[in-house]
Design goal:
By secondary structure, the protein is mainly alpha-helical. The chain has 2 domains: 3-64, no CATH class; 77-120. 54% of the residues lie in helices and 3% in strands. Strands 1-2 form a two-stranded antiparallel sheet. The longest helix has 26 residues, at 97-122.
């Protein structure tokens, strides 16, 4: 009968002297660890780790089967390119003296419109509009 030379218990490290290859043991002779159950848990842990890496979720939720939808990992490639192009264009326009001069007036206009919008939003409505005669 052929024998397996290297069956080692993953829990206690016990290595039996000789094991029948046709019928390997189901449990460790020393600590009683069930090898099939241990393999199932190892596979589940590996699957959970892969899911965590792919979807950025809590590993405990994956093992329990209560993992929610994957968390957002940020902007997609097209959005990052558009953001980078806008930043480069803005810096290029601001680097030129003429466009910097013109953009200051635009920035002032937008800033003051913000004051007006807040005033319109939060001021009490007027009760009467009568012109002095």
């Amino acid at each position: 009968m052929p024998t397996l030379d290297a069956i080692v218990c993953p829990k206690c490290g016990f290595e039996p002297a000789a094991v029948d290859a046709a019928r390997p043991p189901e449990a460790c002779a020393r600590c009683g660890l069930l090898f099939a159950r241990w393999r199932e848990r190892q596979e589940a842990a590996q699957l959970a780790a892969a899911t965590v890496r792919e979807q950025a979720v809590n590993p405990a939720d994956v093992l329990e089967g209560t993992a929610a939808a994957p968390l957002s990992t940020g902007l997609d490639a097209a959005a990052r390119r558009a953001l980078a192009a806008g930043a480069v264009a803005g810096l290029a326009l601001y680097a030129l003296p003429l466009t910097r001069f013109l953009l200051q007036y635009l920035a002032t206009l937008v800033h003051e419109l913000g004051h007006a919008a807040v005033g319109w939003s939060f001021s009490p409505p007027s009760t009467s509009c009568t012109a002095a005669a």
